[in-house]
Design a protein that fits this description.
The chain is α/β, with parallel strands linked by helices and about 375 residues long. It folds into two domains: about 200 residues, 3-Layer(aba) Sandwich (Rossmann fold), CATH 3.40.50; about 160 residues, Glycogen Phosphorylase B (Rossmann fold), CATH 3.40.50.2000. The protein has 14 helices and 14 strands. The strands form two sheets. An eight-stranded mixed β-sheet has the order 3-4-2-1-5-6-7-8, sandwiched between helices. Helix 1 links the parallel strand 1 and strand 2. The longest helix is centred in the first third of the chain and has 19 residues. About 45% of the residues are buried.
Length: about 375
């Protein structure tokens, strides 16, 4: 009899949106190849009128329609997923994120084992209004209570969750990425870029990702190199408009790029990667930068310090960021050393194969017996590199 898992909490696969979708796709395909029956719920757009089921690369997909867009549409989709799963009653569910954890209470009532990846400290993000923040804070608490096991993607997230529930209910597994050892330099021609003559930022255009500080820092002087800022920017958004106004002519905004060969090439051939995230756990974009062998300049906080390791440079304000940007474009020796240590950090902690095997253990029925030995096997130490 095949082991069965249902994955909730994402828009769907194949991945087209972000880190959770990418992770879900990799995990689903890994488990299918290991003999599991995997079902992933996908959110239909407003044009979808009815329920649809199909098979994608061995993964059973269930697409459910929604009647509205935005956050309300996501809430509607999550509720439909939970009620559908409760009727099917699989042995185990993996829920990615806690934004609608209140619905997971129904799974617990129905006796369905629910492993919840608790994501980051979502309720701390500045982009949320007071009532939205309150909703997320409450749902984090509910997720801690109703989840049978909580997965933290970062040791600091695990520490935080341990203030809510027993440590025995928490296991730490970071996100993974692919090691990029080569990439087509021809992809750079689309953006008039030269290898090693630009830095790159990959982040949502939000204040908490330090986008404005990074752009101001780079634009403080004429550099004869480029800064590539990926993401969707619009003058209709006040913050994004401020970023665009602050940018010199040497800053490029090519939009959001999901095409993997292009994204890999832009990372691989960059002089260095700038990571401004101030809130969160193990951010996938930072892990992918390590996997591409990027020297890293990151916002100085406990989350980024653990992920990037001791070789990275860190900043708290635009002036400090500007100083590091200048030094990284000037020092060949420093960049060479940082690239080598980034690869080593990646190989020590963030390769997909090991991490997906750990998830398989968590999701297996037998994994519930003891998570103490599980954590020791991985040698995840919250104090390391913090």
């Amino acid at each position: 009899m095949k082991k069965e898992i249902v994955i909730l909490g994402i828009r769907g696969i194949p991945a087209n949106h972000g880190g959770f979708e990418t992770f879900a796709e990799r995990l689903a395909l890994f488990l299918v190849n290991r003999g599991w029956r995997v079902t992933v719920y996908c959110q239909g757009d407003l044009s979808i009128k009815g329920r649809n089921e199909d098979v994608w690369n061995g993964v059973h997909r269930i697409t459910l329609p929604i009647s509205r867009s935005g956050a309300l549409g996501t809430i509607e989709f999550d509720w439909k997923c939970v009620t559908d799963v409760a009727a099917r009653r699989p042995l185990t569910v993996l829920t990615l994120g806690y934004n609608t954890a209140v619905f997971s209470a129904w799974l617990r009532i129905r006796g369905i084992r629910n492993v919840i990846n608790m994501d980051g400290l979502e309720w701390k993000r500045n982009k949320w209004r007071a009532h939205e923040r309150a909703w997320l804070w409450v749902n984090e608490r509910i997720g801690c209570l109703v989840g049978d096991l909580l997965v933290a993607d970062h040791p600091e997230i695990a520490r935080h969750l341990a203030t809510r529930v027993s440590e025995k209910k928490i296991v730490t597994i970071p996100y993974g990425a692919d090691r990029v050892k080569k990439a087509d330099v021809a992809e750079l021609q689309k953006y008039d870029l030269e290898p090693d003559r630009y830095a790159i930022v990959v982040a949502r255009p939000e204040p908490e990702n330090s986008i404005l500080e990074i752009v101001k820092a780079f634009s403080a002087r004429k550099r004869n190199v480029k800064l590539v800022v990926l993401g969707k920017y619009s003058v209709a958004n006040s913050f994004q408009s401020e970023v665009l106004r602050a940018a010199s002519e040497e800053v490029l905004f090519p939009g959001a790029i999901y095409h993997r060969p292009t994204l890999d090439a832009l990372r691989f051939h960059a002089r260095f990667y700038v990571h401004g995230h101030q809130v969160g756990g193990t951010n996938p974009s930072l892990v992918e930068a390590l996997g591409a062998g990027n020297a890293v300049l990151a916002h100085d906080n406990v989350f980024n310090r653990w992920v990037a390791g001791k070789s990275a440079l860190f900043f708290r304000a635009a002036d400090e960021c500007e100083k590091h940007i200048t030094s990284l474009f000037e020092s060949e020796e420093a960049v060479f050393m940082m690239r080598g240590e980034a690869v080593q950090r990646f190989e020590d902690e963030f390769g997909w194969e090991d991490l997906l095997r750990l998830y398989e253990r968590v999701l297996s029925d037998s994994a519930g017996e003891s998570f103490d030995s599980f954590s020791e096997e991985r040698e995840i130490n919250p104090a390391r590199n913090s």
